[in-house]
Amino acid sequence: MFSEIKKSALVSIWFMFLTFPIMVIKVNTIEDTIIWRWGNLVMVGVGSFFLSFLWRYLQDKTKAKERQGYKDALSKFFYDSFIGNKKVFYPVILGVICIILFFPYLFSTYQVTIMTTALIYVVLGLGLNVVVGFAGLLDLGYVAFYAVGAYTYALLNFNYDISFWLALPIAGILGALAGILLGFPVLRLRGDYLAIVTLGFGEIIRLVLENWGEFTHGPSGIASIDRPNFGFDLSIVGSINAIYYFVFLFVLVTIFFTNRLQNSRIGRAWVALREDEIACQAMGVDKTKTKLSAFAFGATWAGFMGAVFAAKTTFINPASFTFLESAIILSIVVLGGMGSIPGVILGALILILLPEYLRAFSEYRMLIFGGSMVLMMVFRPQGLIKSKRRHYNFREMTKREMQERRNATSS
Amino acid sequence: MEYFLQLFFSGITKGSIYALIALGYTMVYGIIQLINFAHGEIYMIGAFTALIAAGVLSLFNFPVAAIFIIATLVAILYSSSYGYTIEKVAYKPLRNAPRLSALISAIGMSIFLQNYVLLAQTSDFLPFPSITPEIKFIKPYENILSSSGFLIIMFTVIAMILLSLFIKFTRTGKAMRATAQDKKMALLLGINVDRVISTTFVIGSALAALGGVLIASHIGQINFFIGFIAGIKAFTAAVLGGIGSIPGAVLGALILGLTESFSTGYISSDYQDVFAFILLVVILIFKPSGILGKKTDQKV
Amino acid sequence: MKSFFKLLVMSVIFVVSSMSVFAADTIKLGVAGAHSGDLASYGIPTSRAVQFVVDEYNKNGGIDGKKIELLIEDDECKPEKAVNAATKLMSQGADAVVGHICSGPTKAALPIYLSQMIPVISPSATSPILTQSGDYPNFFRTIAPDDAQARLEVDFAINALNLKKIAIIHDKGDYGKGLAEYARSFLKETDNVEIVLFEGVTPGALDYSAVVQKIKNSEADGVIFGGYHPEASKIVSQMRKKNIDIPFISDDGVKDNKFIKVAGKYAEGVYATGPKDVSSNALAIEAEKKHKDKYGDQSGAFYLNGYAAAQAILNAIDKADSTDPDAIMKALRTYYVETSLGRIKFDEKGDAIGVGFSVYQVQNGEYVEQNF
Fold first, then answer.
1. Among the four given CATH numbers 3.40.50.2300, 3.40.50.720, 3.40.1000.10, 3.40.50.300, the one describing domain C147-275+358-369
2. Do domains C26-144+280-355 and C147-275+358-369 have the same CATH topology?
3. pTM for the whole thing?
4. Could B265 and C214 be called an inter-chain contact, meaning their C-beta atoms sit closer than 8 Å?
5. A152, A168 in Cβ contact below 8 A?
6. pLDDT band (50, 70, 90) for residue C38
7. What pLDDT was estimated at residue C330?
8. Do C207 and B14 touch (CB under 8 A)?
9. Domain at C26-144+280-355: CATH code
10. Cα angle, residue C55 at apex, residues C53 and C59 outer, rounded to 5°
11. Which residues of A touch B59 (CB under 8 A)?
12. Residue C282 belongs to what H/E stretch?
């Protein structure tokens, strides 16, 4: 007990030392004033003293679990008792779908817009999950494809008055093309070299959008983009709700596609490529085609969502497509659990809705956001819901089966 | 010709700062294969603590030279402490976790530190007192290279030489190289890997702090956001040179600085960063592991 | 499982608690702008100013017996957040809105207000398109548009300073680049003046010495800069350190005392355009005093514009005797009102009549209005 207190006291002294200049002294070289805020020092000291107990307790718990042959309780619960148990799974899914369907009737328009944003990020997360989670290619410039999609619709609509429904597939196709364009030069690169090139690609796209004023309208952006026409006249609220339903539909389609792809020939090739490139090639998988298809497929979703984003906000400018946006989408994937579709959905909802509901904490909200990202990773490094690998269990045949097979071959 | 020289030196000055930050990236990467996204924030904290120290000291009317030395030391002390603590809190628990988890933890840490300084201090740009001493013999050449620019280059060169000697000849340096090559083997040979990793963070942070102080007094203002852009550029430089390689980081940083300077001077500053990134892509296409990066053979 | 369930419960509580509660029979005035993030310092003064004006009205019994209720929303100066904020204000039933602060988010949010014809009055969105395109009949502002400012800068450079070779630098931002482009087009119409350089710098870059060298190499005899004060002070200091002593003319993003403090001695002689001097206006003095009394320091950017915007819109509601949008907008266009910016009303497009710009120069560490 005493040693625990001593440890915490040391931690507390260390943090008091660490935060001393920044928390205590406030030098304002504009007004030439220095303010000493000793109260903060006491706060840091006391706070870190108690938090260090909590920290060590949580870490011990994690370690103890590891020692006992660590079972990921949340993921296990999710797969066995939730998805596995049809009696629970279907009613819950039905309930969720009902809530989502009646959401606009239950909550205010504001809630609907932020829910739409969250659903857009679900699709983006699922798209990036293909690249990062399945194929293991670290992409730090995913937002570039989102930007391509958004500008495709915005420019087509602005210059040629093309409708959303026509522009949507074009945005998807251009997104895919951009994915292939990025894919080609980076085929030979591995790991973090790939990461920096994708980051560079994202920045290049944004800078071009910013500087090529004649074409993209530069930093002032494109305003008054048409909302999608759903075939009948809608008020603004109606059209916000309609976009919400459309995005929801899109989420379902994306889940369906990525889920089917995961277990398809190409999906398994992606996973094989992620696990070992050379072994994968030796088994006869075409590396070029597989990698490019991962980039193209991931980018397509971003392209689609870009167009939806432009239609939803009716205004876009390059400031919406910064590196931070890529980092957030990547965080969704990793935080949710790489390669796991339910994980990514949960990750997107948490990361996008959390800052909105943290508005109550106003100025502290990004601090809390950053801090909780660190904490979640430290205590759940595998992500919220770990992806489930496909198992093929070998089982001996029973006598009867053997008999049947023998009969089948003999006849 | 004069114009060329001016651009050349402005590129070298910028490149030197990138180099000081890039070294931290590359050393950390070499040892634990982590892109330490919070490294740019360490540089920012270095600049801020130096500003605070200088502010307090000038209250007691210290001479400029003393302020410069003390503020730099304070910045180095604090940045290293932050680097050390960040490693212990945010990365050490993740050492056996998937690599991307540590990356997200680093991004989270970066957001956290930015907002920590924003809230505890201010969002305004603060004027940074020009505490670098004037150098006499550079005066006649002032229009080509300013004396603070000269100091930046000098300090970078000295830091570089000291670092190389340290890594080459000291026990800790050898332990660092061993850990970078094979962590498990180093552990078996009795090297305290945890301590080596901590040392790496401390040294990398100290260099970043030095860069922070020098650039802050060169351009004369700082705010909480300066670490972000500098960090991304330095990371680019480290990859350009071959991440994990110390001379590579310096070379990459100088090339990046010169590219930016010349593309601004002869073409247009509008597309300065575009040229920098295109250069990066082109170099990586021909040398997929950077200019001085070792080409490692892959096995199954 | 427990923790997961807790999370679920908590999020439900959050959702329910953040739902809007409708109160009866008040006038709802929305305020939207950046109250957090890196541009917060441009938005917070306005929300404080509106609060002061509203408190004053409520102390005197409100308008026609109705109290005024404030709905404050943060948009971080980001378009997508602005749309969220606008939707929220609309669903809470705002009768009028003071905001938004930045031009981009204002453009993004206006179509939503337009659908309900909610009058919007911005203290600081200066993009000319907002009024001149005629797309937004519900939009008003208490600040002059950028092209007026660029016009003044160009006239001053040519007529007062007799410049012949001008370098235009901008910060690639919506505001800075827009202004620079207006300045360029006005200069092109003028004979005998050459634009020797038109360049954008990246905000937040380590240093601008390469651009400064380029200015020197271009042999410009004056610089027009479009952007905010952090970049301006970096460029000016590096120019002066390289002994480039040509006039530096900038905009109201630079006409901020912080610029003088940050650039120090290098700020001397810099020209900047800014809103007309109102330091002798009684209402402005009163507004400043209120701020000093409550927050203990000087007000910040666009404080007086925000104050005037709130005064104008509340006065219009008072004069219109209703919260009917058409009546409010008609009142805004018809009646002059005494504000912290002087006596103003609004023209057909929504720009304020009686609000303009002057040129200032830094002399002995202070901005001094130039007669020109």
1. 3.40.50.2300
2. yes
3. 0.84
4. yes
5. no
6. low
7. 92
8. yes
9. 3.40.50.2300
10. 120
11. 34
12. helix C282-295
